Amino acid sequence: MIARRSALKLATAAAAGLAIAPQALAANAQAPPKPENVLSPDAALDRLMRGNARYVEGVGRRQNFKHEREALSRGQNPFAAVLSCADSRVAPEFCFDAGLGDIFVCRVAGNFINDDILASFEYAVQALNTPLIMVLGHEACGAVDATIKSVKDGTTLPGHLPALVAALTPAVNAVQGAPGDMLANAIRRNVMLNVEKLKAAAPILSAAADSKKIRIVGGVYALKSGRVELLA
Ligand SMILES: [Zn+2]
After folding, report:
1. pTM of the predicted model as reported, rounded to 2 decimal places
2. What is the distance between the alpha carbons of residues 175 and 191, in angstroms, rounded to a whole number?
3. Which residues pair with 80 in a beta bridge?
4. Sheet harboring 132-138: ordered strands across?
5. How far is the centre of ligand 1, averaged over its atoms, from the C-alpha of 96 (Å)?
6. For position 199, what pLDDT does the model report?
7. In angstroms, rounded to a whole number, what is the distance separating the alpha carbons of residues 182 and 113?
8. In this predicted model, what pLDDT tens digit does every residue of 168-177 receive, in sequence order?
9. Alpha carbon distance 30, 2 (integer Å)
10. d(CA 33, CA 78)
11. How far is CA 196 from CA 15, 48, 103, in A?
12. Pairing of strands 132-138, 215-221
């Protein structure tokens, strides 16, 4: 309810053209609806990866959505936030064997940060106390592949696709001439570039990362095994 009031306050302040008071984004003071989600950044990463191991082995937990919906009707405290590609083969809640209210997910083809996604993660950290953010790339990403082709051939893609190409071009350029598979290299580089962007995003995420309140990590999802490899 606090979160809803905060959102309303933000909207009202914005509508009135007022400066938004910092307390509008203050953390939820109520008891968290999922106490098991109150974790340190390291413990949150450990839980995320243990969930992935269950998914890989095909021994995921049965989710009781009815019970979870009830518990979550008064708020949310996800233990991790994930930036994933929109690719239908990569489903963060499935691949980390997570339930409702566990993972705060933002998705866009090519899993890159823009202002709206950055604001969403700021909300997760500031208002929901989420201790972990993962940028999750994946094997054979069509968005990265299309960017490589567009950069190589110098062609302009139709519609709004050039915006996506522009966002992914820095990763493609950074791996030009590197040994190994260019697509795989660009996918990893794109994840790490966006991890760095999030770590440096002032004022909210940079401060939270510097003070170790949150961790920001990168991972790449393997399509066949389902395993998420953490990137250093
Ligand atoms: Zn993709």
Report:
1. 0.88
2. 13
3. 103
4. 103-107, 80-84, 132-138, 215-221, 228-231
5. 17
6. 98
7. 21
8. 999 999 999 9
9. 8
10. 10
11. 33, 20, 21
12. parallel
Question: Using the 8-state DSSP alphabet, how is residue 120 labeled?
Answer: H
Cβ atoms within 10 A of the Cβ of 224, count? 6
Q: How far is CA 180 from the centre of its chain?
A: 27
CB 186 within 8 A of CB 195: no
Phi, then psi, of 152 in degrees rounded to 5: -65, -45
Residue 142 CA to ligand 1 centre (angstroms): 5
Q: Which fold has domain 38-231?
A: Beta-carbonic Anhydrase; Chain A (3.40.1050)
Q: How far, in Å, from the CA of 144 to the mean position of ligand 1?
A: 7
Report DSSP letters for 177-191, one per residue. T-SS-HHHHHHHHHH
Q: Whose structure tokens read 């299309």?
A: 146
Mean pLDDT, rounded, of the chain: 90
At 94-124, the pLDDT tens digits run 999 999 999 999 999 999 999 999 999 999 9
Instruction: Measure the CA–CA gap between 130 and 121, rounded to whole angstroms.
Output: 9
Ligand 1 centroid from CA 88, angstroms: 9
Polymer length in residues for the chain: 232
Give the Å distance between the CA of 55 and the centre of ligand 1.
Answer: 20
- The rounded Å distance from CA 114 to ligand 1 centre is 16
Distance CA 167, CA 154 (A): 16
Burial class from Cβ neighbours inside 10 Å (0-12, 13-18, 19+) for residue 21 reads exposed
Angle between helices 142-153 and 161-174 (to 10 degrees): 80
